[in-house]
Amino acid sequence: MASDAFRAFEHAGWVNDSVALAYHRNLGEVTAGCIPDLLKAAGLKAGDRVLDVACGAGYVAAAARDRGADAMGVDFSAAQIQLAQQTYPGITFIEGDAEALPFSNGEFDAVVNAFGLPHVPNPDRATTEAHRVLKPAGRFAYASWCEPTKCIAFSMIYDAVRAHGSLDVGLPPGPDFFNYGRPTYAEEMLRGAGFADVSMKEVPLVWRVSSPAAMIDFICDGTVRAAAVLIRQSPHSLAKIKQYLLERVLQFERNGIYEVPAPAVVVAARKP
Fold it and tell me: If you average pLDDT over residues 156-173, what whole number do you get?
């Protein structure tokens, strides 16, 4: 099945220790910028039991704990779980699948997911699972990247490939990376999982790097899908793609730092 191939592809990438660490070091500060809005959208209160799905290095679970919640995290990558345990040793992190959460019905007051949905093959299953493990009136909130016209930090990669290479490089088909930031898609997905009162807020994140080359290096070293697209280009095409990206990033120079727009959306809903 296509979804099985996509799951295996994503898992093989994210269990790589160097990829997990590169993402943590290079993009962690960017994604962490959505945490206050994410936890607010989840209606977090001291004493709530909170599950951080696709927890990565554990930033969201740690922030929830710091606000007085009983927080834990789950991720399908053993490398990410190890990194989270090392970074936040006082929190429980376990390996598990967002589409088949290892918890009973109604265990949590809130479920959050920060930038994890683009990496699951069947997001409808993941949101249905979030709904299942929530208590009645519990809230689910997720963060994901805005639509491509706004999220330049990531859309420019695919712009470059379309201009100078090919997106048809034999990767297993998966969900549209940017769908989760589209209001109609988000509402249909969450209502289909049984949620009500869907809301959305844009969060103006910026990816700051010291040089255009640093951003390109990170994309190659600290992502899975985008890196695979780049690696599978011909040497001639890859050189042109990198030149295109260098020129795009140069446009965002501010006092010697390059600040590329990477806005996100925080989407939330309630279990009736």
Answer: 94
Range of the domain at 132: 2-270
Q: Kindly give the residue spans of alpha helices, DSSP state H, lying in the chain.
A: 2-14, 17-31, 35-41, 59-66, 78-87, 123-133, 152-164, 183-192, 212-222, 225-231, 235-250
Among candidate residues 234, 126, 133, the one with its CA nearest the CA of residue 174: 126
Q: Are 19 and 222 in contact (CB under 8 A)?
A: yes
Alpha carbon distance 249, 227 (integer Å): 17
CB 202 within 8 A of CB 146: yes
pLDDT, tens digit, 9 for 90 and up, residues 121-156:
999 999 999 999 999 999 999 999 999 999 999 999
Give me the CATH number covering residue 154: 3.40.50.150
HSE-CB of 147 using CA atoms within 13 angstroms = 7
User: In this predicted model, what pLDDT tens digit does every residue of 207-266 receive, in sequence order?
Assistant: 999 998 888 899 989 999 999 999 999 999 999 999 999 999 999 999 999 999 999 999
Domain count, the chain: 1
| Ramachandran category for residue 214: left, alpha or beta (phi over 0 → left; psi -120 to 50 → alpha) | alpha
The pTM of the whole model exceeds 0.70: yes
Question: Phi/psi of residue 42, each to 5°?
Answer: -80, -5
